Amino acid sequence: MNFLSLAAPAANGEAAGGASFPPFDPWHFPSQLFWLAILFGILYLALSRFILPKLGGVIENREDTIADSLDEAARLNEQSKEAKQQQDLALAEARGKARDTAEKAREKVEAEIAAETAKVDAELGERLADAEARIQTLRNNAMSNVEQIATSATQAMLGRLGVTVTEADARQAVARNTQQEG
Amino acid sequence: MNLSFHQMADPMSQFEVKKLFELQIGGIDLSFTNAAFYMLLGVSLIIVFFGLAASRGKLIPSRSQSIAEIGYGFVANMVRSTAGEEGLKFFPFVFTLFFFVFFANMIGMVPYAFTTTSHIVVTGALALLVISIVIIYGLYKNGLKFFKLFAPSGAPFFIYLILVPIEVISFIARPVTLALRLFANMLAGHIMLKLFATFAAQLFAAALAGTALLGVVGVLAFAMGIAINALELLVAGLQAYIFAILTCVYLNDALHPSH
Question: Chain B: nearest CA to A88, how far in angstroms?
Answer without folding.
Answer: 40
